[in-house]
Amino acid sequence: MNPPASPETTPDRGALRRRLADRLAAAGDLRSPPWRAAVESVPREVFAPEWFERVDTEHGTMWSPVLGDAATPERVYEDTTLVTQLDDKVRPRDVAGPVFGTPSSSSTLPGLVVGMLEDLRVEDGDRVLEIGSGTGYSTALLARRLGDDRVTSIEVDPETARRAASALKATGLEPHLVVGDGLDGVPDRAPYDRLIATCSVREIPRPWLEQSRPGTIVLANLTGWLYAFGQTRLTVTEPGHAIGEFLPGTVSFMVARRHAPPGLDTRAALAADTPGRPTDLGPAILRDWAGRFVVQGALPTAQHVTMQVGNGPFLDHLLDADGSHATLLPQQDGSWNVREGGPRRLWNLAEQAVTCWRAQGAPPVDAFRMSITPDRQTIHLPDDSLTWELPHS
Ligand SMILES: C[S@@+](CC[C@H](N)C(=O)[O-])C[C@H]1O[C@@H](n2cnc3c(N)ncnc32)[C@H](O)[C@@H]1O
To answer: Residues lining ligand 1, CB < 6 A?
Structure first.
């Protein structure tokens, strides 16, 4: 164990916060004095006193608890995400060493949080709804910037929400906190001038639009069951209608609980053994940020898994709940075959979408637009040469 810190060795938290603000400004994430003032005054260590550190092992990703003396202020003020919960319940103090698990709550890296708050174009006096309070750190930045009364934050996990509330209180902040499903919004406090989601969604939930007014800005991370992401900023134009853009960058968030994909049945794909047909589209498209986004648009209910049968090679499979499946098979000459089965030819649909996207010059995600009417939500290129409708969740 380290000796207790003496006053001389205790780092000056104010200096650490200023240094963080300088770094975020240099990176272009922090762009205005009001958000700088918020970053310089919110003590992140109160919101993330312990966390999990990622450890890549030969068996896969594990999470190692960081707490006590190891959770130093210097580390808290690094521009990194601090994972605070695994599998909807496990906290760092619950485990003695590295464990497997899926992150379910975190303090998102400050650069991303602050960059999003800047992208939200908040103005003095705005009433903001935040979906996904998490540790409460971003809620605290909002409350410092706008005042407690103008900030509402909703968190689905009661234990996470309870800890965020006590951290906010310890910091002298009391925004309006709600425990519940943020996909339903918080109607009692509507209308909002700004909505910001720190979990990703498969479509923009109708209640968010109903709880807006013309001119409201909605900033959300859009995803799907292929886990392709796009950060969208929408402006509500009239009740139930919005138009928006996708912002540059490669932002991804954990999926809002009700929008997460269902369990998969892999049996049909693994049992199939035909040689398949040649395809010009290899699985690399699924590792391309924009290419994957386009395939997800064409196949909104498909999921991607990489699996091995026996000692065979790891293969990429697309699987759909309707029983359709496609498996990419590497050939000795470096080309690809695809083996498809079930009611729909999944890879054929992916090929058509990718061909169309490439014909337009393979534009990045931020070239796309989003349009919402009460009946449908579409993602499209500005000239509508490529367009798809989002599924209702
Ligand atoms: C990335 S964390 C939030 C980070 C947070 N803003 C911060 O700065 O600490 C995402 C949070 O969204 C929450 N969440 C997931 N689905 C939700 C939903 N449907 N409604 C509200 N919160 C949700 C998770 O429990 C998690 O705490």
So the answer is: 104-108, 113, 131-132, 134-135, 137-138, 154-157, 160, 181-183, 198-199, 253-254, 256-258
Lowest mean pLDDT among 92-106, 161-175, 264-278, 295-309: 264-278
* Rounded Cα distance, 283 and 339, in Å: 13
Q: Distance between CA 367 and CA 344 in Å, rounded?
A: 29
Is the distance from CB of 283 to CB of 291 less than 8 angstroms?
no
204-239 tens-digit pLDDT: 999 999 999 999 999 999 999 999 999 999 999 999
CATH architecture of 267-359: 2-Layer Sandwich (3.30)
pTM: 0.93
pLDDT, one tens digit per residue, over 17-69 is 999 999 999 999 999 999 999 999 999 999 999 999 999 998 889 999 999 99
Between the alpha carbon of residue 137 and those of residues 49, 165, 212, 226, 305, the distances in Å are 12, 10, 24, 29, 34
Domain locations in the chain as residue ranges:
13-107, 110-255, 267-359
Residue 311: its pLDDT value, please? 81
CA of 334 to the centre of ligand 1 (A): 43
Is the pLDDT reported for residue 6 higher than 70? no
Name the CATH superfamily housing domain 110-255: Vaccinia Virus protein VP39 (3.40.50.150)
Q: 3-class DSSP state for residue 15?
A: helix
**Nearest residue to 43 (alpha-carbon basis) of 172, 236, 155:** 172
Give the pLDDT confidence score for residue 265 in this predicted structure: 81
Q: Which amino acid does the sequence have at 166?
A: S
Residues 6+ apart with CB under 8 A from 330: 313, 336
